[in-house]
Amino acid sequence: MGDVGCSHFATYIKEFGYDSFTVVHAYFSACIGKEARRRKALSCLCHKCGGSGPQLFSCLHCIYFGCKGAHINEHYKLTKHFMALELCYGMLYCYQCRDFIYNSECQAIAERHLRREARSLNKSLSWRPWSPSKLEIELLLKNPKRRHVTAYSSIGLRGLLNLGSTCFMNCIVQALIHTPLLRDYFLAELHECTSKTAAKCLVCEVSRLFQEFYSGARGPLSLHRLLHLIWNHARHLAGYEQQDAHEFFIATLDVLHRHCKISMTELPLSATTTGTQPMAPNAGATSNATPADPNPAQCNCIIDQIFTGGLQSDVVCQACNGVSTTIDPFWDISLDLGESSNSQGYGGPPKSLIDCLERFTRAEHLGSSAKIKCNTCKSYQESTKQLSMRTLPIVASFHLKRFEHSSLIDKKISTFISFPSELDMTPFMSQKNRDTADFRYSLYAVINHVGTLDAGHYTAYVRHQKDIWVKCDDHIITTATLKQVLDSEGYLLFYHKKILEYE
Question: In the annotation, is 167 catalytic?
Answer without folding.
Answer: yes
